[in-house]
Design brief:
Largest sheet: 8 strands, parallel, barrel
Structural class: alpha/beta
Number of strands: 9
CATH topology: TIM Barrel
Distance between the termini: 6 Å
Order of helices and strands: EHEEHHEHEHEHEHEHEH
Oligomer: single chain
Radius of gyration: 17 Å
CATH superfamily: Phosphatidylinositol (PI) phosphodiesterase
Strand content: 15-25%
Number of helices: 9
Strand order of the largest sheet: 1-2-4-5-6-7-8-9
Length: 233
């Protein structure tokens, strides 16, 4: 029997403000196997936020990369939650789930690798409890060059760049395609290359059932309980 992995998309973002510690804690309580968060580097600190701009998810304005760390940390990310650092997310999870770090900004690869290595060395995490993913294949290549043991995943969206060349250059653990790109042929092709298929973002029960039917290995969802109910198939 195959285990279906549940990835909490930006935490349990269907219940709590996305990419906040409350969303992370809620996801774990709802049975998520993995917590997915997005990071930018600001003043060499890894900040957990999805958008380039602050306006949608916080009470701030402007571009993330044009602000200071002090300003970012002062913002309300919803329900009184602050914009967390990646270190705070690691500490919140505390090995109760795996962590998928999606690299959003440039110059994030080295900082993420350093933080993962610290937690593996000092805090008894395992390297297989982390996946580093991104649309930005240059950053993923940097991750693999810095630490070949860290698992990487290619995120695939609307502009579907072929991934075959990249996976011949760098040992890749998984592909993370958008739901509309996924069918049985896509899954079969990825599996033939030894890749796991983790699909995003799947919230409706009928779509979850369809993704299970075509053989995906895991599902990113805003509502972890909907996937956690059908862990094995």
């Amino acid at each position: 029997m195959k285990k279906l992995l549940c990835f909490a998309h930006r935490g349990a973002s269907g219940h709590e403000p996305e990419n906040t510690l409350s969303a992370v804690e809620k996801a774990i309580n709802l049975g998520a196997d993995w917590i997915e968060v997005d990071v930018y580097a600001v003043e060499r600190e890894l900040i957990v936020i999805h958008d380039e701009r602050l306006d949608r998810t916080t009470n701030g304005t402007g571009l993330v990369m044009d602000t200071t760390l002090e300003y970012l940390r002062s913002l309300d990310a919803g329900k009184g939650q602050c914009v967390p650092t990646l270190r705070e997310v690691f500490d919140c999870v505390d090995r109760r789930a795996g962590i998928n770090v999606e690299l959003k900004g440039s110059e994030t690869a080295g900082l993420v690798v350093s933080l993962i290595n610290e937690y593996v060395t000092a805090w008894r995490w395992r390297s297989d409890q982390f996946i580093v993913s991104s649309f930005h294949r240059r950053e993923l290549g940097k991750v693999k060059k810095l630490d070949p043991d860290i698992r990487i995943g290619i995120v695939i969206g609307g502009f579907h760049r072929p991934y075959k060349k990249f996976v011949t250059q760098f040992t890749t653990y998984s592909v993370h395609p958008r739901i509309d790109l996924v069918n049985a042929d896509f899954v079969r092709s990825a599996h033939e290359r030894g890749l796991k298929v983790f699909v995003y973002t799947v919230n409706h029960p009928e779509d979850i059932a369809r993704m299970v039917a075509v053989g995906v290995d895991g599902i990113f969802t805003d509502f972890p309980e909907r996937v956690a109910r059908r862990k094995d198939f």
